[in-house]
Write a structure and sequence with these properties.
The protein starts with a helix and ends with a strand. The chain is of the alpha+beta class. Strand 11 and strand 12 form a beta hairpin. The chain is about 30% helix and about 30% strand. The protein folds into 4 domains: about 160 residues, ATP-grasp fold, B domain (D-amino Acid Aminotransferase, Chain A, domain 1), CATH 3.30.470; about 90 residues, Dna Ligase, domain 1 (2-Layer Sandwich); about 150 residues, Rossmann fold (3-Layer(aba) Sandwich), CATH 3.40.50.261; about 120 residues, 2,3-Dihydroxybiphenyl 1,2-Dioxygenase, domain 1 (Roll). Helix 2 packs antiparallel against helix 3 and helix 11 runs parallel beside helix 12. Strands 21-22-23-20-24-27-26-25 form an 8-stranded mixed sheet. Strands 8, 9, 10, 11, 12 and 13 form a 6-stranded antiparallel sheet that branches.
Length: about 525
């Protein structure tokens, strides 16, 4: 969870970090009193700062055309004038994207006479499993740029989590920033306070940029956190009710807010293929493989290791709230997760939402056989994936197919059902003089024989349930490009099946009725 600058400074101040005097304002009515209080301290200038969860505010542009999300006013009236141009307006920065963020809170602060700017941050070094303090004498600019151009100017100090920051480490960092005398001691106290803020608040990052030496009105110098950013570990928020109250839902995407109500980890992206996955690592891999096969993921959605049927249904509703979604890939590896719970949730969600989009499901792991059986017996339109690659390939193909969902490519054959294959073959081969080109099966089971005639094929079938000879015509077999997609489409359109999908050594097939009661075979020949 991210919080605003003014909230971050409140947390820092609790731990003894020196910050400028400032006041938030959420309405124009609050701006003048706040500016007057700042001016009453003797400050010659009032800084008006837009509060949004994005960097680059000072160089940003409002959609109204007003330049800059951070302004320095020489008077209270000028501060109010800036506020009128900023509050309630949409600010676009390099981090917000073209949509920008609506400014609903301003921070008014006393102006500071800056002598020197620094950078200071605390974060978790995952490679070493330890807190890391980073400091640089190059403050007020992107630390990524400093790391690229002047890596030698970044000082790093790892902290042992068993004992916390030691006094000698705070002194090392203060010295690395070049602080001396009283400023050195102030720097030691500030560094210690910043680390303690990170630790006590269960933060993932605390960043001061800039941390600065400023000249006070009495001519003395002080070290102050002029700007602050804190990101917090969502998983630890239950321990910090006061910090939870700092959450600003206006800064979050509506779908992400809805997902958090069901303990779902959801991040909206710009693609067209929605993902529903268990586990962050598998979710990242799923997005990568969708990209690999030419698709674009519409979201990151991790249902966690123990999702319920209700959570799965909620996940589908959230996914379908995104108008850019053209297909859905469910990729589940059941370790803790029971695949049948997911399958039951998928079926319920499809029925409840009336899903019409292509849905590809890949299940592996705990109780997978029951999960696959639940899907197979559900009667809903689902395309199954045998592997993660197969599932990704199928969903990309389904979404990318701008033609009809049912795509017949040729007449595969005309077929007759027979009750005695040996007797029938004797007739066709002896009386009609045809030569069998394909034949398989054994007496008592499914038997199939094909006769290629010029560009067409005549087929004889024996042993299929409920498929028997009739006087009023043969069945037409249509060759389809994607068998599973075709079957899913037919189920979605409530087509009546005579023979459910089945597989033979040479093909996949199913039989349906047309509206007049005629049989049509849906066919996909296996690759030789």
């Amino acid at each position: 969870m991210n919080i605003h600058e003014y909230q971050a400074k409140q947390l820092l101040a609790r731990n003894g970090v020196a910050v400028p005097f400032d006041l938030p304002a959420k309405s124009l009515a609050e701006v003048r009193p706040a500016a007057e209080k700042i001016a009453a301290t003797g400050s010659a200038r009032v800084v008006v700062k837009s509060q949004i969860h994005a960097g680059g505010r000072g160089k940003g542009t409002f959609k109204s055309g007003f330049q800059g999300g951070v302004k320095v006013a020489a008077s209270v009236d000028e501060a109010v004038g800036f506020a009128e141009q900023m509050l309630g307006q949409t600010l676009v920065t390099k981090q917000t994207g073209p949509d920008g963020r609506r400014v609903q809170t301003l921070l008014l602060a006393e102006g500071a006479k800056i002598k020197k700017e620094f950078y200071l941050a605390v974060l978790l070094d995952r490679a070493n499993s330890r807190p890391l303090i980073m400091a640089s004498t190059e403050g007020g600019m992107d630390i990524e740029e400093v790391a690229e151009k002047h890596p030698e100017k970044i000082f790093r100090e790892h902290i042992d989590p068993a004992v916390g920051i030691m006094p000698f480490q705070a002194r090392k960092i203060s010295a690395a920033l070049g602080l001396k005398g009283d400023l050195f001691n102030a720097g030691v106290k500030l560094v210690t306070g910043v680390f303690n803020t990170w630790w006590e608040c269960d933060a993932t990052m605390v960043e001061l940029n800039p941390l600065a030496i400023v000249e006070l009105r009495d001519g003395k110098e002080a070290v102050l956190a002029l700007d602050a950013k804190i990101s917090l570990d969502d998983n630890a928020l239950y321990r910090h009710k006061d910090i939870q109250e700092m959450r600003d839902l206006n800064e979050e995407a509506p779908l992400e807010i809805e997902a958090s109500k069901f303990n779902l980890n959801y991040i909206k992206l710009d693609g067209s293929i929605a993902c529903l996955v268990n586990g962050a690592g598998l979710a990242m891999a799923t997005m990568d493989i969708i990209q690999h096969f030419g698709g674009s993921p519409a979201n990151f959605l991790d249902v966690g290791g123990g999702a319920s049927k209700e959570q799965v249904t909620a996940a589908f509703k959230i996914i379908l709230s995104d108008p850019n979604v053209k297909g859905i890939l469910v990729n589940i590896f059941g370790g803790i997760m029971d695949c049948n719970v997911i399958a039951t949730g998928i079926v319920a969600a499809v029925k409840e939402t009336g899903l019409k989009l292509p849905l590809v499901v890949r299940l592996e792991g705990n109780n997978v056989a029951a999960g696959k059986q639940t899907l197979a017996e559900s009667g809903v339109a689902i395309i199954t994936g045998d592997s993660m690659a197969d599932a990704a390939r199928k969903v990309v193909k389904a979404v990318g197919n701008h033609g009809p969902a049912f795509n017949a490519t040729a007449i595969a054959f005309t077929c007759y059902p027979v009750t005695d294959m040996a007797r029938a073959r004797k007739f066709y081969e002896t009386v009609l003089g045809l030569k069998a080109t394909t034949a398989y099966g054994s007496e008592g089971g499914m038997q199939w024989t094909e006769y290629d005639i010029a560009s067409g094929t005549l087929a004889l079938g024996c042993g299929a349930p409920d498929w028997r000879p009739r006087e009023d015509g043969a069945a037409l077999a249509l060759e389809v490009e994607d068998f599973e997609q075709a079957i899913a489409h037919l189920r979605a359109t409530n087509a009546k099946f005579k023979v459910e999908p089945m597989a033979s050594p040479v093909c996949h097939m199913a039989f349906i009725y047309d509206t007049e009661g005629n049989l049509i075979c849906i066919h996909k020949r296996r690759k030789s």
